[in-house]
Amino acid sequence: MTVVPAQIQPAPGPFEEAWPGPEGRPSVATLAGAAGTGLVAALALVLNLPGLGWLLTGLTVAATAVVTAWAAGQRRARPAQLGWGAAALALLAAGVLRAEGWVFAYCVLGALLAGSLAVAGGRTVPGLARGMAAGPVAAIRALPWVRRGLAALRGRRGPAPSRIGRSVLVAAALVVVFGGLLASADPAFRTLLTSLSPDLHGTGPARAGFCFVVGTVIALGTAYLAARRPAFDALAPLPPARPVRRIEWAVPLVALDLLFLVFAIVQFTVYFDGQWAGTDYARYTRSGFFQLVAVTALTLVVLAVAVRVAPRQDAADRTLLRLLLGALAVLALVIVASALLRLGRYEQAYGWTRLRVLVGAVEVWLGLLFVLILGAGVRLRAGWLPRAVAGTAVAGLLLVALVSPDRFIADRNVDRYFRTGDIDVHYLSTLSADAVPALDRLPEPARSCALWQIAVDLKPDDWRSWNLGRAEARTILARHEVHC
Question: What's the pLDDT tens digit per position in 117-147?
């Protein structure tokens, strides 16, 4: 008689212990909520236009998550969950107010990441990273859970979960990512993909089917996380760095501090005197902006490495670390100020563009990070810092969307036109409908030439794509005809 040994199940690893997933099966309300989200997305989403449909879809995803959490016994949400959830909905609501599609694309991405943090959580740097990545992973991991729920609705026990569905989703994700990169690299390949791809921007069944599937999958992934919140922060932290002696970490920081100090002295000298080696002052201050942005970002990396490798066991090490890192953060703020001053000189010479507004906003955010680092360095405790960094990034993105970069660009360039008589009408005509109130201040024929292309692209909205910026633009354009 041959004895067949029982199959030995491998012990769950630390990641599985931190994220075991919900037990049992989804409730009928969860399944109905996910299907309802897909239906709302199919009816309300207009993929190529910011509008009301995006917010309605986000609200149904949030409702499905709340219903699932209540069914799982989680009746009280944590303040962080409420904050991240409110931020996600606020970013989608920006699409109701502003017409800039390029800004709203960032808002949608930010809403997905904030929504994932609302249900997955995360306080530490690794926990936040895993929490932001948990959304798409949950959509795949939810398949067996959903199959159990559907089998229960049919009144029979479901078969063993198959990996085919997950493989199909992974394959689809890989094709989308790599196909997009290859299409951007070769025009002929992009033309082929365009001819083979269904039209997702119209009102036909291809768009509705695509939106239904995507909306349902997002709702199911969110519900999977809401049913049993992962414990990503409980995972083992990063292994401790190799201890280094004081001279090993102090010498590089002292050298960088001295370099930044010399740079700061030069900046103060130049800006107060207005002269530097015979070079034209305006041209001098306009140069080097993007290099200074790179220096600011790299300084954050240096600070992170120094905090990780510098020992803090005795008081002398802690005091020296505070002094050197504090000096580096303060001097980095001088570099931020220098970069922003150079950006102002760019605007005076050439006017504002989307790239300059976006990079300027990022530079302001990096400056805010140095202020937060200075606050964390007082007690050398930064448990709150990762969430503050993520929170300020989301708040900054929301602020940029509410300010309306296109309207800001148009306003400043029109003001510059009245001062100097210089204006790039062709560039202004490529802005969104949010720029119409500012461009309407131009005298003819510059006004018509700046508004003509915007007026041609401005199509009527229905309830799905209703947007305040486009509605205001149509009202303004209806007052006067536009000819160029």
Answer: 999 988 888 888 889 989 888 988 888 888 8
pLDDT at 201: 60
Count CB-CB contacts under 10 A for residue 426: 10
Alpha-carbon span 431 to 412, nearest angstrom: 13
User: What does residue 165 show for φ and ψ, rounded to 5 degrees?
Assistant: -60, -45
Rounded Cα distance, 99 and 122, in Å:
32
- What band does 391 get if pLDDT is binned at 50, 70 and 90? very high
Rounded-to-10 torsion of CA 176, 182, 188, 194: 10
Give the residue from 357, 383, 403 where a domain finishes: 403
How many whole angstroms separate alpha carbon 163 and alpha carbon 26? Answer: 19
Helix (H, G, I), strand (E, B) or coil at 82: helix
Tokens of 173: 């994700």
CA of 283: how far to CAs of 147, 275, 342, in Å? 65, 11, 9
Range of 47's domain?
17-234
Nearest Cα to Cα of residue 229 among 124, 129, 117: 117
Locate the DSSP E strands across 321-452.
none
Q: Is 376 a domain residue?
A: yes
Evaluate the omega torsion of the peptide bond into residue 445 and state whether it is cis, within 30 degrees of 0.
yes
Length of the chain: 484
The answer to whether 467 touches 50, Cβ cutoff 8 Å, is: yes
- The HSE-up count of residue 260 (CA atoms within 13 Å, CB side) is 26
Domain boundary (204, 234, 264) is at 234
pLDDT tens readout for residues 100-109: 999 999 999 9
Residue 218: partners with Cβ closer than 8 Å, 6 or more residues away: 37, 61, 112, 135, 139
Mean residue pLDDT across the chain:
82
Over 80: is that where the pLDDT of 386 sits?
yes
How many angstroms separate the CA atoms of 339 and 337, rounded? 5
